[in-house]
Amino acid sequence: MNLEARLKRVVDEDPDKYSPESIMRVHQFILWTEEHPNKRRQWNAFDDIEDFKLYYNTDPSLKDKERGELANGPDEIGRKFYNAIALFFERKKIRDKKQKEDLLMWFPKKKFRWTTFTTIKEFKDAYNSDPNLKGKASSELQENKDGGSAFYAALYKLCKKLSKGDKKVKEKLMEWIPTKLYNWFEYTTIEHFKREYNNNPLFKGKFRSEIANDTTNGGSRFYSALKRFCNNESKGDTKKKDELMSWLPESDIYRWKKFTKIEQFKIEYETNNHLRGKTGQELSKDTRHGGKAFHSALGRFCRKESKRQGIDRAELLIWLPYSTKAPKYDFGRGQLRFGSNPERIVGMILNKYGLLKRPEEGINVHVMTNGNHQHNLDFLTGNTFIEYHPLSIGEKKKGLTFEDVFDIRWNNITNPEYQQHWFWMFEDINDLHYILQDPEIKPLMNKKYQNLTYNQFKDHVNEAYDKAREYDQKQEVKKQKAELNSILKFSYDFMESIYPTRETPAANDDIELADEVAA
What we know:
Layout: H1 3-13, H2 20-35, H3 49-58, H4 67-72, H5 76-91, H6 97-103, H7 120-129, H8 138-143, H9 148-163, H10 167-173, H11 190-199, H12 208-212, H13 219-234, H14 238-244, H15 252-257, H16 262-271, H17 280-285, H18 291-309, H19 313-316, E1 328-330, E2 335-337, H20 341-352, E3 365-368, E4 376-381, E5 384-388, H21 393-397, H22 402-411, E6 422-426, H23 432-435, H24 454-498, H25 507-518
């Protein structure tokens, strides 16, 4: 059940408990958070302590936790939620301690009263009644972050005090806590470990890293025993050790680190639903689905490979979209993405002059020029490649000249079908006018532009810049309208489900309001 459904259930259970304003603010907060999972949560959207209370009762990761658990617990969302309440008090200039306590009365009282226990019976009763403690061995309690470690510490302190330093008396007082011993270190075959992994619901299906870091359910000890067994069996043979542990799945992070070809990264990027279509910047910020780890592994590989091949790292990454803000343009066959705004302008000019009649990615725009699909050139018209390429920072650092880069690009044209093609490369858009006089290009141009002057060409370039700017503005307005309409419609539907008697605005009211806000 997602947070939207949980919010509706909380409100339905007691419709009069929360104000419509609080419901709307929490609803919009949840909606915004789900649409922007990689951005900071906008806690400052909460304008009343009631907003915090409603969200607290909606989010299962927060509900029923007392203040200390949120403020000092391992859950980052819990800490930020509690910190947001403190900032709310500052924003509203609520500094009186008693007033703060009164506003936070809805928080549950502290659960962990074990430090006040004075008898072993109190500990036994708490142990047998708390599902987070019951049945757990002493070692499991000490590693349990849901209160087990605090419980065991309080019990140990009391037993030490009652025994007055007598070790045997202390052990007698604590003997009712089971001392569960794991026999994983006694396993003598790899099949024993496989059977334990497949039969133990706490381990089955988990990655190596997940088991190794699981100190609550014994995973770390299981993995330590497995590693010791494999080390002893392989006797330093890394290949044999990998074979012994091959049945235990590695996480994607470790798998990506072992990639040795750029094609492996491309296939992973194109087949993994969490990665496909994302730009380099989006991947680097995606900590939820492994995008950041994939981007790091890819960057590490490209640094080594570019040094080995003696090429620019960008050559290995041309298949990966760099930025969501990369210029786009629709020539009537869907949007095309360009590496820079000047490159987009060149494409628009070539299209205007009839040299790119049907612009299409991979066909006459960003055409791959060699067999391993690592290099491309911007435009192809007739039998001529046209490349807009100012020297990059990396190329300048290497001391490369324009002629050096031209030779590199020229030598990358290895596909047999392009062996008879010519190649133009330029740094300044104004140089394109000279290139258009090429006897191989000029006859392909629209007849009314074949004899255009330099000044006419400059005017067309300025027109293209204006047209591109207007296109970007329209796309931004269109995007804002779509987002506003989506949020407004969702909000109306949500409020209607809670207050069915409420008059719902006509469908076109959403569009009019979105137009007004966007304007």
